[in-house]
UniProtKB/TrEMBL annotation:
InterPro entries: CENP-P. One of its GO terms (biological process) is CENP-A containing chromatin assembly. This is Centromere protein P-like. One of its GO terms (cellular component) is chromosome, centromeric region. It comes from Crotalus adamanteus.
Amino acid sequence: MLLRSTQLSKFELMIVWKIQVDEKGNIIPFLDVLNKIPLQGALADKFASDAPQGFRSLLHVIGIEASIETLINLISED
């Protein structure tokens, strides 16, 4: 899933969802967020390093749907 900001051109977040099935049939979901930030400097560097970890933390606290909804709300704020 690719999320783009309407306010910041070329700013994108990609949600990667993989499902791994082991030999015993156990299903292990893996979600992560990758970002594309056209900006440079301290703010861009901080966001690039904090966004994936923040997303993984949200997954554990509020779940998949709410985490994705939070990302959408963050990039679509006016």
